[in-house]
Specification:
Radius of gyration: 46 Å
Largest sheet: none
Number of strands: 0
Structural class: mainly alpha
Oligomer: single chain
Distance between the termini: 116 Å
Length: 229
């Protein structure tokens, strides 16, 4: 029993001595390291440096001695903190009450400058189409020009309709101030007046013949579609 005790004590002493012998190689200066390398030799010096590196970078065991104890965490790794990401809301101003109510008159007033931009763009496209020799490119320019012309024509139609309604509203308000009943124009009469205004505008711009030709083609295609097969 005494031999076993003495042997265990000697092992503990050897372990303590070996732990005391461990030296941090970082504490040596460059000159001291070179001198140590010359004394030990290249092979032994590399082994010593490798053992020192492994000793400094060996992983600690953070296992719990008991499941009831809290787990020990490494201080080198910062804890992962997860923040709840705010949900990104996509709002459409056309259907959002927070964006206010659409006022067509105010909208048209603020964006009326777009008419001038479209007019300048149409002039450029007409000039470009005259100079263009490639048939495919010419067709593409013509399509863009027609799209802009349709937008401008539709906008003028809507403007005329809105102006007619405003005039009618003002007249009815005036009649009510005078103690008279308001007069509402039938939709058929409004439609006829709008067509007359549209024809006059097309005739003024020299586009009436082209408009009537396209309309006849559209009506003919619709009639052929409605014919019984």
């Amino acid at each position: 029993m005494e031999d076993n005790a003495s042997s265990s004590e000697s092992e503990d002493i050897d372990e303590e001595e070996s732990e005391e012998e461990e030296v941090d190689m970082k504490s040596f200066s460059f000159g001291e390291l070179q001198e140590l390398k010359a004394k030990l030799g290249v092979k032994v010096y590399r082994e010593a440096m490798s053992n020192d590196y492994n000793r400094q970078h060996r992983k600690r065991d953070f296992k719990r001695a008991s499941k009831n104890r809290p787990r020990e965490m490494s201080s080198k790794k910062p804890p992962k903190i997860q923040f709840a990401k705010p949900k990104k809301e996509i709002r459409d101003p056309r259907f959002d009450d927070n964006c206010g109510t659409l006022k067509p008159e105010a909208f048209r007033h603020h964006y009326k400058f777009l008419d001038e931009i479209k007019d300048r763009e149409m002039v450029k496209l007409r000039k470009k189409m005259k100079k263009m020799k490639d048939p495919d490119a010419k067709t593409a320019i013509k399509t863009s020009l027609q799209r802009l012309e349709n937008q401008v024509r539709e906008q003028k139609k809507n403007d005329l309709k809105r102006e007619t309604l405003e005039v009618e509203k003002e007249k009815n308000l005036q009649r009510m101030r005078e103690g008279k009943k308001p007069v509402f124009v039938a939709k058929s009469v409004k439609r006829k007046a709008a067509l007359e205004e549209q024809y006059l505008a097309l005739k003024k711009d020299g586009k009436l013949d082209g408009y009537l030709k396209k309309k006849r083609k559209r009506l003919a295609a619709q009639e052929r579609k409605n014919l019984p097969s």
